[in-house]
Amino acid sequence: MSPRPNSLEARDIAAHLHPYTNQRKAEAEGSLMIDRGEGIYVFDTNGKRYIEGMAGLWSVAVGFNEPRLVDAAAKQMAKLPYYHTFTQKGHEPATLLAEKLLELAPVKMSKVHFTNSGSEANDTAMKMIWYRSNALGQPEKKKIIARIKGYHGVTIASASLTGLPNNHRSFDLPLPMVKHTLCPHYKAFANEGESEAEFVARLAKELEDLILAEGPETVAAFIGEPVMGAGGVIIPPEGYWAAIQAVLKKYDILLIADEVICGFGRTGNMFGSTTYGMEPDILVCSKQLTSSYMPMSAILVNDRVYQPLADESQKIGTFGHGFTAAGHPVAAAVALENLKIIEEKDLVGNVRALAPKFAARLAKLGQHELAFDARSVGLIGCLELKPQEGAVGARGAKLVGLLQEEGLISRAIGDTLALCPPLVITEGQIDELFDAFERALAKM
């Protein structure tokens, strides 16, 4: 059904080129217009309430109407609404936030560089690595290895790191200095009869073979999410990160942890790196940093990365990179208050307390005849459906629509339905979420 003429839905589609959208489908059907939020819920312009089962875009930790964040933004807006951090200038909110992130970091880090989104942060990390290699007199050491089904953003560089076909097709990507290795989805990609340990060993060997084929002297870094989010909530098998890091250390290759989704409590620790024993040289975070009330991201680098950058900036006169709104004082003030709320309300503890119930309800969905797999860690999980023959993604698209009818917003990643609710969710609301999911699945 096409949107009513002159309705807000019709006006939106007439004026707005939507991201991640089939534009012709949108023209025919209109948009779901969200009007307000309250805790884990959002309401459309007709007043219908939805459980926001994706926390927006994997990102709203503290709920959709936290007055402390509104107040923090208003106070900072009234005091210093904007200033930059270029050319040895700074301001208190960015300084305090940098200090706080270094305090929270899962491993010892040296410096924090602010950007505005996860895409910008990963793009910047790539530039930092190239700059560092030149500083070290290793101009050939520029390649970065990412993973099939990994997601790292949508700029030209970060979309190249992303390992999803629809982020490459028709954009002439990826860039040639980005290489992709295998995806650690055991149930989907294990060979027949292959144990988890054997699967992990094969992935580590494939990575090492790729490094040797490219030349270790040309490979600078490896990037990975602790849990792969937009690729389908892919949880690494036991021992995976230990095996990967052993290969990287053998060939002096930096590790970038993309914590854009996992950071600030999602997996049951402040960072996914802690959950999986990762020791990154560079850590990228965004989303739950401000609960997405303001655009902000941050790149944490250790001294191994920072010192060559500093030396090169002295040699040539500058670290010639930055964004107008990077370290924005209002965003930094909101981030500081958001992190206070996460700590004061022990939302990481809430994730740990609720994770068993979340996992049990998800496992029950996994017993459905259409289910291929159900998996979770902390408060992130998914139900992966068996694909319909000749129509991969059709079942996922149908089910996400049925979920929306039942008042639950999910995201279909092919035939995988993802769940990533706000960290403030309660035990009763988890039941409410999965009851709606079961009703929709029954309609399939």
From TrEMBL:
GO molecular function, a single term: pyridoxal phosphate binding
One example of a Gene Ontology biological process annotation: biotin biosynthetic process
Record-linked InterPro entries: Aminotrans_3, Aminotrans_3_PPA_site, PyrdxlP-dep_Trfase, PyrdxlP-dep_Trfase_major, PyrdxlP-dep_Trfase_small
Superkingdom of the organism of origin: Bacteria
Pfam families listed in its UniProt record: Aminotran_3 (PF00202)
Keyword Transferase on entry: yes
Alphabetized SUPFAM superfamilies for the sequence: PLP-dependent transferases (SSF53383)
Cofactor(s) required for function per UniProt: pyridoxal 5'-phosphate
Keyword terms, alphabetized: Aminotransferase, Pyridoxal phosphate, Transferase
Entry's family note: Belongs to the class-III pyridoxal-phosphate-dependent aminotransferase family.
PANTHER family: ADENOSYLMETHIONINE-8-AMINO-7-OXONONANOATE AMINOTRANSFERASE
Protein name stated in the entry: Aspartate aminotransferase family protein
Naturally occurring in which organism (per UniProt): Falsigemmobacter intermedius
Lineage per the UniProt record: Bacteria, Pseudomonadati, Pseudomonadota, Alphaproteobacteria, Rhodobacterales
